[in-house]
Specification:
Chain lengths: 962, 568
C-alpha cells in the first residue's frame, strides 16, 4: 500500500492550493476579468518572433508588474509562448535568510530538454485581418495555422484551417506570482494549513469582483512531514489554463499509473479529485488508477478528436500539477449544431520558473509527437541487445551465481542477452567497487558472458557513500561537486549506503568528473560488454521531504532544487551516457552505443536510453496497468519503456508469471526483475508447462527482433511510438480513443492484446477498420470493424496480423540476439482486402555508430496484387563511408522463406515462382523456386510458402507469382 | 503430395556442402543415423516416410522435413521445437505430420576425443562450441569470418590427462569407500553389540524393579503399624512460637507478593508500550530501504509476536492475589487467637489440626495457592529453597524404598529407550552398504562468498558470516533420498554431479527466513576422493542446494568415468 501521508496532496502543496483557489474564485465570479493585459504598443514582430510586455495589475495597489512576453514561431509549425518576470529577470529582488539562491526564474530547462526544431519560421507573418484588440500571426505549413493574441485580458487562440484548436488563458486562470517583499504583519495567530475551507469561504465572501483573496500562509515557508522549506524567493508559481475545444480525450502528462486517456480531476464518479502531479518521486508501492506523481515527468499533452490531434508542451522543471475538466456542449456553433461535443479544459500549475509553453497543431498524432520529439530529441537507436531479453534480480549474489544463471539459460535453451546486477555487488554500497567476497572475479564473469555476446548491466546510483577511505567520496568532497544545502554547504542525506552525498550533474565539472569514473582503468572489473543502470535519480533521499531533496537545496550556479527537480534525473543519465563513450582510448576510434536504464526522466531523456516503470508488484492489476503506462510513454516521445516482468514486490503465481512474460514480450524494454525478498523466478525454474510457454514467448520476441529493431529505428528518426495505441493508428475512429489494453507493434499491423486477468481464456479484441486480421500463429481469419473474440488459453498470446503488411522475422532460435546476426530472414506477407502489402526492414550491426556513416540496410518490401509481384527496394539514403563494408559483410544473408498469408486461390497448383535479383546494378536472369500452397480450412486463411528464394536481404530483387 | 511435384525441379543449391569432407555421411550425421542417408537420389524424412526429397535438399540450409531430418548439418530446422512459437508454418507444416525431432543434434566426430551431439541452435552461429564440439566442425559456414580450428588433440589430451587423474582419484576414492564401508560395518556391529548388551541389562533391570516393588510393599506394611505421623519434630516447640513464626512468614510472603505484583504490573505496562511501539514500527517502516539493522529488528519482532504469548492475564488469579493481600483478619484468620496458646490441647495436635481452624476460603486457597506462590517465589529467587526432598508424613524406610524403586525404574526406562534408539538406528537407511553410517556427524566446512558453510552429514547444515556473528541453521537432517540430476557431463576435474540418479540428504526446518520459508538444504552427493563441498546455490529464497563430493558414493553412478559425455 502506498503511504499517502508521505506525499503531498494539492491542498498540502501551497502553490497548488493557491492556484486552485484562484481558479475556483475566477470561475465562480460572473464578471471575472484576468488582471493580465498585453500592451499593444509594446508588441513587435520580427523574423518569426513576437515580443511584447504583459502587465499584471495588482488589485490592492493598482501597481503593474511587467512580464516580458515572447511568442516564437518555428519552421516545424510549432509555436512557443514564453512569459518571464522583469524584476526577477534583472535580479532586482531581495532574498530572505541570506540565501545565495539565484534570483531569476529558472530559464535553463531548455538547455537540457530542447535539442532541435527551434529554427525560426521565415514564413510566419502578422495578419492585417486581425480584429480590434488582437494581434494575429499566420504561420505553419501552407500558412494554415493562426495565433490570435488577445490583448486584454491577455490570451492566445491557436487555429488550424480557421478552426480554433487550443486556447490559452481563455478562462482567465493565468497567474504569475510576482516577487514581493515579505511584510511582517502584526500577526493575529495564524493557523496551520488545515483550515482550508474556512479560508476559502472567506476568500469568496470578502473579496470584490476583481480581487482574489491571496492565502499568504504558504508564501514564505512551508512545512511537510517534519521538513521546512525556507522559500528564500517567496511565492513564484506560474499557472495557465489551456483549453482544447471539441476535444474529448487528452493523453500524456506521463508518468502516472492510470488509463491512457486522462481522467477529470475535480471529483465525481470515477474521476479523480486530485490533479495529475509531476514531481519525480520514489513512490514506494505505488497504487493503481491514480494521478499521484511517480518517478518521471513529461509535461507534454495531446488532445484527440475525430481526425484531429493537437498538443502542448509545458517546459517547466519545477513541481507541477495539472487539473483536467471536461464540459459537454450540446450544440457546437462551429459544427452547425450537429450533435454534442466535449471540450477538455486543463489548468497547469508549476511552483517556479518561466511560463514556457509549446503548441502543436497536428493534425495527425504523428505530426504532434513528431514535432514534440523534434524539439526534445528522438529516442536513441539502441544496440540490438538492449531490445532483446534482460534478466535481472535484486540480487544475483555472487559472480558464480551470475555464471550459473548464464549457463542455466543455455542449458534450457532459453534466449537472453543481458544479466543485471543490483546494488549488492558493491562493497558496502560504494559504487564503482565490487564486493571482494562475493564478486572476486568480475572480469572472468564478464568474459564468460561475452563468449555468447551477452552483456552485464550494473547499477550506479547518484548517492555517494559518506565514508572515509573511499576515494570517490574524497574526490567528490575535495572537488566540491556535490549538491549543496540551503546554506551552500555540502548536502548530506540518507540512502542505500546510509549517510551520502549527491553528485550534482548540473555542474559541468561534476559531469566531467563523473565521466572519468567509468573508465575501464578506474571502474575495474568492467569491460566493453558492461552497461549501466541509473536508479534512485529522482533523487531518492530516504530522509528527505517526500523521499527526495529539500527544495531549497542549491545546485550548480545556485539554482534551487525546486527550480530543477524534475530535470535532475535526466542530468545523471546524460552524464552516464557521455561516460560510456569515454571508457577507453582505443575504443574512441570505434564506439559502441551506450545503454543506460533510468528510473527518473524528463522530456528529452529518450535520447539517452530506456526507462522502466519502477517498483511494481507481482499482482494482476500491475500487469494490467503496465500496458496503458507503456502506451502513454510511447505517445510521450519516450517509447523505450518497460515494466518489471513478474512484478518487483512479491511472488507471482506461475500463471501470472507466464502471462507477464507473454505481455513482456511486447514491452519495448523487456526485463524480468524481482525484489531481494522474493523467491527466484528465472524462466527455467517455473516448471512445465510454464517454462515451455515462457520460452515460446521469449523466442517469439527474438524471432520478431528484425521488426522491433526497425520500429526502434523509426522511433529514432521520427519519434513514433514503438507500441501504438488505437487512436494513434486510427485517429478517425472515435470509438477507439479510450482503448489502452491493446496495441500495434511498429508499422507492421501486428495487433496484440496480452491477457492480464487471472484465469482468462479468451480475449475480446477491438478491430478499428474494415480489414482482415489473421491470427499470428494459425492464420484464423477475422474481419473488422468490431470486436472479435480470440481464444487465449495459457499457452496462447492473442496476437493478430492486419492485412496489408509485410513482416520480417528471423526464425532460428539462438542463445542471444548477437548470434542471430548472420541468420537468414523469413518474410511474412499478409494480404488483406486490397490484396497489396508492404513493410520495411532496417538493419545494421546492432552495436556501433557505423549506421551514421551509411553502414546499414534499409529496404521496403511490397507486394502488388496488380502485378502479383513481391519486390525489395532500397530506402537507404546516399551511400556513406561504411555502406560497402556493411553490405559486403551481409552479402550471404538471404531470405530463406516467404510466407504469404491470405494467398490467392489462383495459386493453387502453381508450384513455382520466378525470382530475379539485382546484382551490381543488373537484373539477373529469372530462376524458378518452388511455391507450396495450402488451401484454407475451417476459419483459417489459405497460405503459401516460397521455398528458399535465396535472395540477399541487402539487395534488390523481385519474386513474380504470376 | 505437393512435395512430389517439387521433386521435378532440380535444385540450384550448392550441395557440395552437404557432405562433410572426410566421410561418406552427410554433415552432422552420426553413424547411428547413417543408414537413413544412404540413397544416392532421394531422402525420406525419418519420421515422415511419406515425404521424400531429392538428395540435394539434404543439408541445403532449408528445412523441408517436419521432423528436421533433412538438415542434420545446419541450423535450418533448429526452430522445430516445443520451445518455439507454435505456428502453422513448421517446416512444410502439413497437418498430421510427425514433428517430433528425428535427430538428437549435430554430430561432432571430435576425432581425438569423444564424439558428441550439439544442439542445432548452435550450428553456424559464429561461436566455437569447443565444450561439445572440439573439432569446430559445427561452424563450417564461417559466419562473420569465424574460424573454429580443430582442438580435439589438445582438448582430448588434456581431458584424458585429467581423466586419468580422475580415474586414479576414483581408484583412491574406491579404496576410501571400502574403508568407509568397513568403518560403517564396524559401527553397525557396535550398535548390534550394544543392543545385545542392552537386552541383558533390561532383563536385569526388570528383575530388579520387580524386587524393589516387592520390597516397597513390605516396607509400607511394616510401617503402617507405627506412629501415624512420620517425622514429627522431636522437640515440638510451643504452639505460640509456631504460630508466631507462621504469622511472620505469612506477612513476609504477603509483602513479597505485593512487591512482586507491583513490579509485574509495571513491567506489563511497559511491555504493552514497547509492543505498541514495535507494532507501529513494523507497520510503518519502509522495507524498500533495505536497512539490514531495521530488517533484522522487524524480523525478530515478527518472530516474537508469532510466539506463544504465555497465559493471558487471568482475572481469577488476580482476585486470588487481591484476597491474599488483604489483612488476615479480613480473611477470617485471627493470629491472636492462637498466639496466646491453648494448653487444653496438645500443641502437636493443634498444629496438625491447624488447617481445620482456618476459614474455608483461606484453607482452600492456602492449600493450593500458597504452595504455588512459594514455588513462584523460589523460582524467581525471592525465597531460598529450604524444603527437604522427603515427602511429608512418610517414614524414612518407605521413602527410601520408593527412591530405590524409582531409580531402578529410571535405569530400566533409560535402557529401554537406548534400545529403541539403537534398534531404530539399525533400521534407518544409511545408503548402500550402510556406508553413510561412517559419515554420521562428521562435518566439512566450505567458505563461499560472505559465509562459511558447515555440512554435518546426517545432522545439520549451517551458515556463518565471515565477518563474524552467529551461525544460522540451514536445516536439520530428515531423510535420505535418490534424486535425478542433470548437470551434463562430469567436468574433467571430477568436481560435478554429472547426470543420473544421485544420493541426496535432505535437511529441513532450519531457522525461519524472513519473508520466506524455514531454511532447508538439499545436499546432493557425487563421487570424490575427499569429502568436499563443491558448490552452494540458493535455489530459491532460503532453499539451498549443496553439491558435495564424498568417497561414500563412489562405485555408484559417479564411478562411470566417461558418464555423460555422449549424453546431450
Amino acid at each position: 500500500m502506498v503511504k499517502h501521508e508521505n506525499f503531498k496532496t494539492c491542498a498540502q502543496s501551497g502553490f497548488c492550493k493557491r492556484n486552485r483557489a484562484y481558479g475556483d474564485t475566477a470561475l465562480s465570479s460572473s464578471n471575472w476579468a484576468a488582471p493580465y493585459s498585453l500592451d499593444p504598443a509594446s508588441v513587435k514582430f520580427e523574423k518569426g518572433i513576437l515580443t511584447g510586455t504583459v502587465s499584471k495589475t495588482i488589485a490592492n495597489t493598482g501597481e503593474a508588474v511587467r512580464l516580458p512576453l515572447t511568442v516564437a514561431f518555428y519552421e516545424s509549425g510549432t509555436a512557443r509562448v514564453t512569459i518571464d518576470e522583469e524584476r526577477r529577470q534583472k535580479g532586482e529582488i531581495e532574498l530572505r535568510h541570506n540565501s545565495k539562491a539565484k534570483k531569476q526564474r529558472y530559464n535553463e530547462a531548455e538547455k537540457w530538454a530542447i535539442v532541435g526544431g527551434t529554427t525560426v519560421s521565415t514564413g510566419a507573418a502578422t495578419s492585417k485581418a486581425a480584429e480590434k484588440g488582437t494581434t494575429k500571426i499566420v504561420y505553419g505549413p501552407a500558412s494554415k495555422f493562426e495565433a490570435v493574441i488577445r490583448h486584454t485580458p491577455f490570451g492566445v487562440e491557436f487555429k488550424r484551417d480557421g478552426e480554433t484548436q487550443v486556447k490559452l488563458n481563455d478562462r482567465g486562470l493565468l497567474n504569475m506570482e510576482h516577487w514581493r517583499p515579505k511584510v511582517d504583519k502584526p500577526a493575529p495567530e495564524k493557523k496551520e494549513g488545515e483550515e482550508e475551507k474556512k479560508e476559502g469561504e472567506e476568500a469568496v465572501v470578502v473579496e470584490s469582483d476583481k480581487e482574489i483573496a491571496e492565502d499568504d500562509g504558504t508564501w514564505w515557508d512551508e512545512s511537510f512531514g517534519g521538513n521546512t522549506d525556507s522559500k528564500p524567493r517567496g511565492p513564484e508559481a506560474v499557472a495557465l489554463d489551456i483549453e482544447f475545444p471539441g476535444y474529448e480525450h487528452v493523453y500524456g502528462a506521463a508518468e502516472h499509473a492510470g488509463p491512457l486517456s486522462l481522467k477529470e480531476t475535480r471529483g465525481g464518479d470515477g474521476k479523480y479529485s486530485e490533479p495529475y502531479r509531476l514531481y519525480n518521486s520514489d513512490v514506494f508501492e505505488y497504487e493503481m488508477d491514480s494521478p499521484m506523481t511517480l518517478y518521471g515527468a513529461i509535461p507534454f499533452m495531446q488532445a484527440q478528436k475525430k481526425d484531429s490531434t493537437v498538443g502542448v508542451f509545458w517546459l517547466n522543471a519545477a513541481e507541477t500539477w495539472i487539473d483536467i475538466t471536461k464540459t459537454t456542449t450540446s450544440a457546437n456553433p462551429l459544427s452547425f449544431g450537429i450533435g454534442s461535443s466535449v471540450t477538455t479544459q486543463t489548468h497547469w500549475i508549476s511552483e517556479a520558473g518561466l511560463l514556457d509553453v509549446f503548441v502543436f497543431l497536428g493534425p495527425k498524432p504523428q505530426d504532434v509527437i513528431g514535432a514534440y520529439t523534434e524539439l526534445t530529441g528522438y529516442t536513441q537507436l539502441p544496440q540490438q541487445f538492449a531490445i532483446a531479453y534482460h534478466q535481472c534480480r535484486w540480487n544475483y549474489v555472487t559472480d558464480e551465481d551470475v555464471r550459473d544463471v548464464d549457463r542455466k539459460f543455455d542449458k534450457h535453451r532459453i534466449p537472453y542477452d543481458v544479466i543485471w546486477l543490483d546494488i549488492e555487488y558493491t562493497e558496502g554500497k560504494k559504487y564503482f567497487t565490487w564486493d571482494p567476497m562475493t564478486f572476486p572475479d568480475p572480469l572472468g564473469m564478464n568474459k564468460q558472458l561475452d563468449e555468447h555476446e551477452r552483456k552485464l548491466v550494473a547499477i550506479i546510483d547518484p548517492h555517494i557513500k559518506n565514508k572515509g577511505n573511499y576515494p570517490i567520496v574524497e574526490e567528490l568532497k575535495s572537488k566540491d561537486l556535490a549538491v549543496h544545502n540551503k546554506d551552500d554547504n555540502i548536502y548530506e542525506g540518507w540512502c542505500w549506503p546510509g549517510s551520502s552525498y549527491w553528485i550534482d550533474c548540473f555542474s559541468p565539472k561534476g559531469r566531467e568528473w563523473w565521466k572519468g569514473l567509468f573508465r575501464y582503468d578506474k571502474f575495474r572489473g568492467t569491460m566493453k560488454n558492461v552497461f549501466i543502470w541509473n536508479d534512485m535519480n529522482e533523487p531518492s533521499v530516504f530522509n528527505g521531504p517526500e523521499t527526495t531533496m529539500p527544495k531549497d537545496n542549491l545546485h550548480h550556479d545556485h539554482w534551487e532544487h525546486r527550480d530543477v527537480h524534475n530535470i535532475n534525473g535526466m542530468t545523471l543519465v546524460n552524464a552516464t551516457f557521455d561516460a560510456l563513450l569515454a571508457r577507453d582510448k582505443v575504443e574512441d576510434k570505434h564506439h559502441v552505443r551506450p545503454f543506460v536504464l533510468t528510473r527518473s526522466f524528463y522530456s528529452g531523456s529518450q535520447r539517452l536510453g530506456a526507462m522502466w516503470t519502477g517498483d511494481n508488484q507481482a499482482a494482476w492489476p500491475h500487469l494490467e496497468a503496465s500496458i496503458p503506462m507503456l502506451l502513454s510513454m510511447g505517445v510521450s516521445g519516450f517509447p523505450f519503456a518497460g515494466a518489471d516482468v513478474g512484478g518487483f514486490f512479491g511472488n507471482p503465481s506461475k500463471e501470472l508469471l507466464t502471462r507477464w512474460y507473454q505481455a513482456g514480450a511486447f514491452y519495448p524494454f523487456f526485463r524480468g526483475h524481482a525484489h531481494i525478498d522474493t523467491r527466484r523466478r528465472e524462466p527455467y525454474l517455473a516448471g512445465e508447462p510454464y517454462t515451455q510457454i515462457i520460452t515460446q514467448a521469449l523466442r517469439l520476441r527474438y524471432a520478431l527482433l528484425p521488426a522491433w529493431y526497425t520500429a526502434f529505428h523509426e522511433a529514432s528518426v521520427s519519434g513514433a511510438p514503438i507500441i501504438r495505441p488505437n487512436y494513434y493508428v486510427h485517429p478517425g475512429d472515435e470509438k477507439g480513443f479510450g482503448i489502452d489494453d491493446q496495441f500495434y507493434l511498429g508499422s507492421y499491423g501486428l495487433l496484440a492484446k496480452p491477457v492480464t486477468k487471472e484465469g482468462q481464456e479468451g480475449q475480446d479484441i477491438y478491430l478499428a477498420d474494415k480489414e482482415k486480421y489473421y491470427d499470428y500463429f494459425d492464420f484464423w481469419t477475422y474481419e473488422g470493424p468490431g470486436t472479435v473474440n480470440v481464444a487465449a488459453p495459457l499457452d496462447t498470446i492473442p496476437f493478430l496480423m492486419q492485412g496489408g503488411h509485410i513482416i520480417p522475422r528471423r526464425d532460428r532460435p539462438r542463445r542471444s540476439s548477437g548470434l542471430m546476426r548472420y541468420d537468414p530472414f523469413t518474410l511474412v506477407v499478409v494480404l488483406g482486402n486490397s490484396g497489396d502489402a508492404e513493410g520495411t526492414l532496417y538493419l545494421d550491426d546492432g552495436e556501433s555508430f557505423d549506421f551514421q556513416e551509411g553502414g546499414y540496410i534499409h529496404r521496403r518490401f511490397s507486394y502488388a496484387s496488380s502485378t502479383s509481384t513481391l519486390m525489395s527496394e532500397d530506402l537507404a539514403a546516399a551511400a556513406g563511408k561504411k555502406t560497402k563494408e556493411y553490405l559486403k559483410q551481409m552479402e550471404k544473408v538471404r531470405v530463406e522463406k516467404v510466407i504469404i498469408v491470405g494467398a490467392p486461390a489462383a495459386w493453387k497448383g502453381k508450384g513455382e515462382v520466378e525470382v530475379s535479383e539485382e546484382q551490381s546494378g543488373k537484373i539477373s536472369a529469372a530462376r524458378k523456386v518452388s511455391l507450396d500452397w495450402h488451401d484454407k480450412e475451417d476459419g483459417k486463411a489459405a497460405w503459401a510458402v516460397v521455398r528458399d528464394p535465396g535472395v540477399q536481404i541487402g539487395s534488390g530483387w523481385k519474386i513474380a507469382f504470376a | 503430395m505437393k512435395v512430389a511435384v517439387a521433386l521435378i525441379y532440380l535444385e540450384y543449391a550448392a550441395h557440395s556442402l552437404a557432405a562433410s569432407p572426410d566421410s561418406g555421411r552427410p554433415r552432422g550425421v552420426s553413424p547411428d543415423f547413417a543408414k537413413f542417408y544412404k540413397d544416392a537420389a532421394t531422402f525420406t524424412c525419418i519420421s515422415n516416410p511419406s515425404l521424400s526429397l531429392p538428395i540435394a535438399r539434404v543439408n541445403d540450409d532449408y528445412c523441408d522435413c517436419p521432423d528436421g531430418s533433412d538438415e542434420p548439418g545446419t541450423a535450418a530446422c533448429a526452430h522445430l521445437s516445443p520451445l518455439s512459437p507454435q505456428t502453422t508454418v513448421n517446416g512444410v507444416g502439413a497437418a498430421g505430420s510427425n514433428t517430433t525431432l528425428a535427430l538428437p543434434g549435430f554430430y561432432c566426430k571430435n576425432k581425438g576425443h569423444a564424439a558428441s551431439y550439439l544442439p542445432f541452435t548452435r550450428v553456424n552461429d559464429g561461436i566455437c562450441d569447443y565444450e561439445l564440439c572440439c573439432d569446430g566442425s559445427e561452424e563450417w559456414e564461417s559466419v562473420g569470418g569465424v574460424k573454429c580450428e580443430d582442438r580435439c588433440q589438445q582438448i582430448g589430451k588434456e581431458w584424458r590427462r585429467l581423466d586419468e587423474q580422475r580415474q586414479k582419484s576414483l581408484g583412491n576414492a574406491g579404496k576410501k569407500r571400502k574403508e568407509l564401508v568397513a568403518e560403517a560395518q564396524r559401527l553397525r556391529k557396535e550398535v548390534e553389540d550394544r543392543i545385545q548388551t542392552l537386552g541383558t541389562q533390561i532383563e536385569g533391570g526388570e528383575r530388579k524393579v520387580g524386587q524393589l516393588e516387592q520390597e516397597l510393599v513390605e516396607v509400607e506394611r511394616r510401617e503402617k503399624g507405627r506412629v501415624v505421623r512420620g517425622s514429627v519434630p522431636k522437640k515440638a516447640g510451643k504452639l505460640g512460637i509456631v504460630v508466631g513464626l507462621a504469622k511472620q512468614r505469612t506477612e513476609e510472603l504477603k509483602e513479597a507478593l505485593l512487591r512482586v505484583r507491583g513490579e509485574r504490573d509495571a513491567s506489563a505496562t511497559r511491555l504493552v508500550e514497547v509492543e505498541a511501539i514495535l507494532a507501529t514500527f513494523k507497520e510503518e517502516y519502509n522495507p524498500n530501504f533495505n536497512d539490514e539493522g531495521v530488517k533484522r529488528a522487524v524480523r525478530a519482532w515478527e518472530d516474537y509476536a508469532a510466539r506463544d504469548k504465555g497465559a493471558e492475564a487471568d482475572a481469577a488469579h488476580d482476585r486470588d492475589l487481591d484476597a491474599l493481600s488483604q489483612s488476615d483478619k479480613q480473611n477470617g484468620l485471627d493470629w491472636e487467637e492462637y498466639e496466646g496458646g491453648d494448653d487444653d490441647e496438645s500443641e502437636t495436635d493443634v498444629l496438625y489440626a491447624f488447617e481445620a481452624y482456618l476459614p474455608p476460603s483461606v484453607r482452600t486457597w492456602l492449600d493450593a495457592k500458597l504452595r504455588s506462590l512459594r514455588i513462584t517465589l523460589i523460582e524467581s529467587g525471592i525465597l531460598a529453597d529450604t524444603s527437604s526432598s522427603s515427602s511429608e508424613g512418610e517414614s524414612k524406610a518407605v521413602s527410601d524404598a520408593k527412591t530405590r524403586l524409582s531409580t531402578a525404574q529410571k535405569d530400566l526406562d533409560g535402557h529401554r529407550k537406548d534400545l529403541t534408539t539403537h534398534q531404530e538406528d539399525l533400521d534407518k537407511p544409511f545408503g548402500p552398504d550402510d556406508v553413510f553410517r561412517a559419515l554420521k556427524d562428521t562435518c566439512i566446512s566450505h567458505p563461499a562468498g560472505e559465509y562459511t558453510y558447515d555440512l554435518c552429514f546426517l545432522s545439520k547444515t549451517t551458515q556463518k558470516p565471515k565477518k563474524g556473528g552467529g551461525s544460522t541453521n540451514m536445516g536439520n537432517y530428515v531423510s535420505l533420498e535418490q534424486i535425478w540430476v542433470d548437470e551434463g557431463a562430469v567436468p574433467a576435474d571430477g568436481k560435478g554431479l554429472g547426470t543420473g540418479l544421485r544420493w541426496a540428504m535432505k535437511y529441513e526446518h532450519g531457522q525461519h527466513c524472513w519473508n520466506g520459508p524455514d531454511r532447508s538444504t538439499m545436499v546432493v552427493l557425487g563421487c570424490a576422493e575427499e569429502g568436499e563441498v563443491w558448490r552452494i546455490v540458493e535455489e530459491e529464497k532460503c532453499v539451498y542446494r549443496m553439491e558435495v563430493g564424498t568417497p561414500a558414493v563412489c562405485g555408484e553412478a559417479g564411478l562411470k568415468g566417461k558418464g555423460g559425455r555422449d549424453e546431450l
